[in-house]
Amino acid sequence: MPELQQERQFQKRDVAYKARISDILDGSLIKEGLSAGYIKLNGANASRVNIIATLVYKIEQGQGYAGAVIDDGTGRISLRSFENSAAFSKVDVGDAVLVVCR
Length: 102
Hints:
Layout: E1 16-18, H1 21-26, E2 39-41, E3 44-46, E4 48-61, E5 65-71, E6 76-81, E7 96-101
Parallel strand pairs: 1-4
Antiparallel strand pairs: 2-3, 4-5, 4-7, 5-6
């Protein structure tokens, strides 16, 4: 009997555009229909961003929640993780981080 080949289905993700925190804070959120929305970054509609910054604060509270604040020199923004409470466990305050998020 011939072996069955399993087809892998990959989730197509939107491009994560490189951005500064000030670009995100100064941008306007545009929501269309049921989408999560996007911001305009250099003419592109960005629903995901790629940020390099320094971790300036973190908190891990119980099960299922962790939070952090990052700063890239242009501004500060807070991050939250609801499903993975260990999301920030491998980094300490003062570490450089690469964040790809929605």
